[in-house]
Amino acid sequence: MNAGEIVDRIKKNLVLPWRDTTYRDTFKIGNPDSQVTGIATTVMTTFDVIKRTHAAGLNLIITHEDTFWNDRDETKDLVDNPLYKLKTEYCRTNNIIVWRFH
Asked: Whole-model pTM above 0.90?
């Protein structure tokens, strides 16, 4: 299954109606069409969690909190941030997908 299909299955099986208007419950990095090798869950997607996910052979992270240090996961002010660059490049290189499920 790809990441988008997994998220669709989660949405379909919720007991509450899904809100399509939220900015929180969206893909934060990675391609939703990518095939999933395994799923990690976490409260916060730290760089350590990303590395441990990859080391375990998994590539979809479902996280509760923001990935980029602000509630909306806005990245326009982070383009020169070294940790932002490191996290995003590592995810792209290793096909890591992050979906926030708040």
From this structure: yes
